[in-house]
Amino acid sequence: MEDDIQEEVLSEFREKRLGGWQILQLTAATGLTVYAVWAGILMPGFRRVPLKLQVPYIPASKAQVSNVMTLMKGRSGGIADLGSGDGRIVLEACRRGFSPAVGYELNPWLVRLAHFHAWRAGHHRSVSYRREDLWKVDLSTYKNITVFLAPSVLSLLQKKLLAELPEDALIVAGRFPFPDWTACKVEACIM
C-alpha cells in the first residue's frame, strides 16, 4: 500500500515540468543550505587560524577508527585526539578502556556534536571534548595521541610533540604521515 503511494507521488513529480520560478527557488534553497552548512559547521573551525593551519572536517570512517584502535592495542592510560571532529575516535578509545579520553577541537559545532554522540552512547561522563587550540594545550601527561590533520599542520605539530611527549608515547597519524618521521607500523584502509 505504502509503495503504491510512493510510486504515485513519484510519477506525478516526473510528469511535472519545472518552470523558471521553481528552478530559481530550488537554486536559492540549495545555495542557502550549502551556506548554512558552511557557516554553521565548517567555518567556525577556521576562525582565528592562519590559512596554513586550517584543516577541513572530514570524519574518520569506521575502518579508520578500527585501525587506530588496532595500533593502540596493548596500550593504556590517557589518550588525546588532536582535531577530534565529531569525537568518534575518543568515544571508541573510551569504550576500549583508555582513561582519560580527551578530544581537542576548535569548531564549537563539532564539539557539541561530539558531546551528543557521547551522551547517546552513554559515555558522556567518561569522555571529555574541549574546545581548545591544540597549540596551547600541554600534552605532557598523555602517552597516546591520535592525529587526523592535514600535512601542512603535521610538520609543525611534530616539533610540539617531540618537545612535550614522554619517550614512550605512541602517536597515530591518520590519512597523512608525519613528514620527517618513519612509521613503526602501518594499518592500511580503503576509504
How is this structure best described in words?
With 191 residues, this protein is an alpha/beta fold. The chain is 43% helix and 10% strand. It contains six helices and five strands, in the order αααβαβαββαβ. It has a five-stranded parallel β-sheet with strand order 3-2-1-4-5, covered by helices on one side. Strand 4, helix 6 (151-164) and strand 5 (170-173) form a beta-alpha-beta unit. The longest helix has 23 residues, at 20-42. It is elongated, with a radius of gyration of 21 Å. The two termini are 39 Å apart. The relative contact order is 0.14. The model has no long low-confidence stretch (mean pLDDT 84).
Keywords:
43% helix, single chain, five-stranded parallel sheet, alpha/beta, 191 residues, 6 helices
Task: Write a brief caption for the model.
This is Adenine nucleotide translocase lysine N-methyltransferase isoform X2. The protein has 191 residues and is α/β, with parallel strands linked by helices. It has helices at 2-15, 20-42, 62-71, 88-95, 108-121, 151-164; strands at 79-82, 101-104, 127-130, 144-147, 170-173.
> What's the story with the biggest beta sheet?
5 strands, parallel
Shape: elongated
Number of continuous helical runs: 6
- What number is the mean pLDDT? 84
Structural class by sheet pairing and helices: alpha/beta
Strand content: 5-15%
Q: What gap, in angstroms, lies between the N and C termini?
A: 39 Å
The unreliable regions are: none
Radius of gyration: 21 Å
Instruction: State the order of secondary-structure elements, H for helix, E for strand.
Output: HHHEHEHEEHE
The main sheet orders its strands as 3-2-1-4-5
Q: Strand tally, please?
A: 5
Helix content: 40-55%
